[in-house]
Amino acid sequence: AALTGAGDTRDGAVGETRPALAGYVLGDPAEYDREHAVDLGRLLAFLNATQPHIVAQFALESDGPKRRQFLNRLQGEIAKRGIIDLLRKGLSHGPAHVDLFYGAPTPGNRAAERRYAENVFSLTRQLQYSPDATRLALDLGLFINGLPVFTFELKNRLTRQSVLDAVEQYKRDRDPRDLLFQFKRCAAHFAVDDQEVRFCTELKGKASWFLPFNQGHDDGAGNPPNPDGLKTAYLWERILTRDSLSDIIENYAQVVAEKDDRTGKKREKQIFPRYHQLDVVRALLADARANGAGRRYLIQHSAGSGKSNSIAWLAHQLVGLEQASRPIFDSVVVVTDRRVLDKQIRNTIKQFAQVSAVVGHAERSGDLRRFITEGKKIIITTVQKFPFVVDEIGNDHRGRTFAILIDEAHSSQSGRTAGT
After folding, report:
1. How far is CA 403 from CA 87, 225, 243, 318, 371, in A?
2. What digits encode the pLDDT tens for the residues 320-330?
3. What is the pLDDT of residues 118-155, one digit of tens each?
4. CA 162/CA 262 separation, integer angstroms
């Protein structure tokens, strides 16, 4: 109701309406194509509004061989590349390129603002996803331009069910072989009650791993009391808004390849930010955007909190920050501790950076000058080499501004390193 402005929609009836917080439309379960796992009605609405020539070229308005060929191609690309990459880069079908999502516009770009406004964010209640006669249904499905992004199981502790029951429902009742629940088909699956939120990026039956998506309370787990509503209202009031979700799709969610050092095999892993990661990166970016270069920050984190990903998200977004149409930072230098092998952070940043050519690893003292000359925007080095890096900047680059991210800052605050 908060997102779409529609009231109770059980049994297909729309009740009292109210102002929508986030500009979503209410999806119709009958328009969900179970064979291809897309909301066909919303997909066609988006394509008709933005690319009518695509609708005509592939005869998408009527069920037939050409439309089925297009939908099969769409389904195959989601399975291969994942929903996030498809939204970011679109789809090639025959001689045509199809845009499936328009990212947030830069300030003053009127054409990009119009395209961004054409995106269709929708929510469908009681989404019947199974193609067989059982007609199994989800509590909620979230779509962008007809493509599935999130699923939700919702519980209420007043009925003696909690987020743990929602997690168990995903593990027990949602078959990861069903098209909607296959790996990379959705960005995340959320278990939600009135007090807590958890999410999973890859359903594996009983082995599904759900992480908390809570704000934390009194230096502990959970969420703080909300005088204006449910403890979990932040999820739809702040995280699922059009602007916030577009930001997550463009800058955070990702499929990365992890190599097993023992076997040499690579395995894909879908990454989605936890609440605290999203919160800290957005807070740092907002302050740097408002105040420019020259300020210092201390970020405290616990073991297993996803620090490498937070550093990677922050580094590649700091590169794009501007004030008065000029970059705030010419380069971002990431300093890691030799004792914590910097290979992990280096690989993580390279995978998250949209253009890998912007990343350089300064292994020798002369590398930094070369990287700056070559236009490398993100430079990674170890704390042991950092004094030489500072010297190497030299007078030639005194007029430049640098953002310096120091990993494990506490472990390097002694001796010559601290003096630097």
Report:
1. 30, 36, 26, 8, 15
2. 898 888 889 98
3. 999 999 999 999 887 677 899 999 999 999 999 999 99
4. 40
What is the chain's length? 420
Determine what percent of the chain falls in helix, strand and coil, rounding each to the nearest 5.
40, 20, 40
Long-range contacts formed by 374-380: CB under 8 A, 24+ apart: 376/331, 377/319, 377/331, 377/332, 378/315, 378/316, 378/319, 378/331, 378/332, 378/334, 378/349, 378/353, 379/331, 379/332, 379/333, 379/334, 380/333, 380/334, 380/336, 380/342, 380/345, 380/346, 380/349
Q: Is 316:352 a contact under the CB 8 Å cutoff?
A: yes
The confidence score (pLDDT) of residue 331 equals 86
Q: pLDDT digits over 146-191, tens only?
A: 999 999 999 998 889 999 999 999 999 999 999 999 999 999 999 9
Q: Which phi and psi (to 5°) does residue 355 adopt?
A: -125, 110
DSSP assignment letter at 238: I
pLDDT digits (tens, 9 = 90+) for 197-218: 999 999 999 999 999 999 999 9
Tokens of 130: 């199974």
CA distance 408 to 256: 24
* Structure token digits, residue 61: 């308005």
Q: What is the DSSP string of 252-286?
A: T-EEEEEE-TTT--EEEEEE---HHHHHHHHHHHH
Over residues 252-301, the pLDDT tens digits come to 998 888 777 778 888 899 999 999 999 999 999 999 999 999 999 999 88
Nearest to 236 by CA among 163, 170, 171, 150: 150
Backbone φ and ψ for 269, nearest 5 degrees, come out as: -135, 130
Instruction: Kindly state the DSSP code that residue 235 receives in the 8-state scheme.
Output: I
Q: How many CB atoms lie within 10 A of CB 248?
A: 19
How far is 288 from 291, CA to CA, in rounded Å? 5
CB 288 within 8 A of CB 328: yes
Strands 359-361 and 121-128: unpaired
CB-based contact 94:107 (threshold 8 Å): no
